[in-house]
Amino acid sequence: MSTAPTPIVSRNPADPTDVVVKTAAPGAFAAADAVERARAAQPAWLLAGAAARAAALTAIATAVEAAADELTALTVREVGKPVTEARAEIARTAAIWRYYAQTPHDPAGTVHETAAGPGLLLTRRRPHGVAGLITPWNFPFAIPTWKAAPALAAGNAVVHKPAPDATACALRLAEIAQQALPPGVYTVLPGGATEGNALVSCADAVSFTGSTTIGRAVAAAATARGIPVQAEMGGLNAAIVLPDADMDTAAAHIAAAIAGYAGQKCTATSRVIAVGTALAPLREALATHLRTLPVGDPTDPATVCGPLINEQARDRVTEARRGLPDLVTTSAPTRSNGWYTAPALLENVPADHHLLREETFGPLAALLPADTLDQAVRMTNSVPYGLVTSVHTASLDAALHGLDRLDTGMIRINAPTTGVDFHLPFGGTKASSHGPREQGRTALDFYTSVRTYTLTPAHP
């Protein structure tokens, strides 16, 4: 006897009694059907030409800007993102659509001379067909956009499977996009693991952002099918602070990168490595900034750290810090109905503790001493992840040292680990990323394949 599928329920993390959306999980057959409809629509979308694709993406950007207040409020309500940061995400979302609206007019290949005799050698980039997009909840508009926009610009159709906790945001973005696109070119597939697995099994290319465990499974399944796959996964990011750094500025950057959006970013800082005599002043400056960092209701424009996304996330953070003495702890809101936790800076964390080996995805960070910059670099590189590292120093030599020796995909000098430029490649090393980079013009390479053409005259 079959049982009904578990419905998708998305709740407001600041007030879990507020159900944002409840919908039935469509199942694996729905995923296959969505891909087939997208595959049928994709050739006409490609043949519409560069101008039509550019105009459609521009129209989406304009519509996102027009709906900015509504989309900001929905982001705050569904994923608990503080309103100031949510507003910035919506502005970024519109900017990404507008950025990729330019790219259909970019050169699609190159022309080469033949080795001998008349003729032409050409390369040309062509879309894969249907791009399956699997996204997390923490950037519910920006991440789907930086996957969908380049895929569409290159002439693909897309099927988007969002995280259940961001279902309402995904459906609203699809409504906006579908107003500018032909039917079948942009489809949202709500659901969980069943729908995600089905999408990986039938799409022509897959782009994933989420946990390392699931990302590895997605990469393995897509690779077994022989289709292109990229997976952006976890981070265990370090901030290295040297004695010559501006301690107050460095501490402000690091505190925000620890506790901003309750640490629910793959680029959040979770290890702070103080070099030599930087330890004492950095400890004091970080304590000051963390204790004054606003924690509370995400609808308050002053809030920096809001709730965690759900009860399981809150319990995971609580368990991760159990038994560890806090160097600095801020006060969590007294409201009992939201999934809040207090940001914390921890010291004397054992070297084998899981906080120093695995991503927690919460507002926790360990303060670690290093005698030298070389030791700090070794500590940074010692974990399984390699997404982003920040280095805080007034020394160009030290900055260059970090650039040369740090085994991370992104290195930021005198800037927080969080916050990246969408027109540059995004991604890490080791367990943080699999496959080609996202964002910037680099993204177009993933959503296309290179064809090589040889043209010779019929009558040489």
List keywords for this structure.
Aldehyde Dehydrogenase, Chain A, domain 2; 460 residues; alpha/beta; six-stranded mixed beta sheet; Aldehyde Dehydrogenase, Chain A, domain 1; seven-stranded mixed beta sheet; 2 domains; 14 helices; 38% helix
Polypeptide structure, described:
The protein contains 14 helices and 20 strands. By secondary structure, it is of the alpha/beta class. It has two domains: 8-233 and 432-454, Aldehyde Dehydrogenase, Chain A, domain 1 (3-Layer(aba) Sandwich); 237-413, Aldehyde Dehydrogenase, Chain A, domain 2 (3-Layer(aba) Sandwich). The chain has a seven-stranded mixed sheet with strand order 12-13-14-11-10-16-17, sandwiched between helices. Strands 7-6-5-8-9-19 form a six-stranded mixed sheet, with helices on both faces. The N and C termini lie far apart (71 Å). The mean pLDDT is 94.
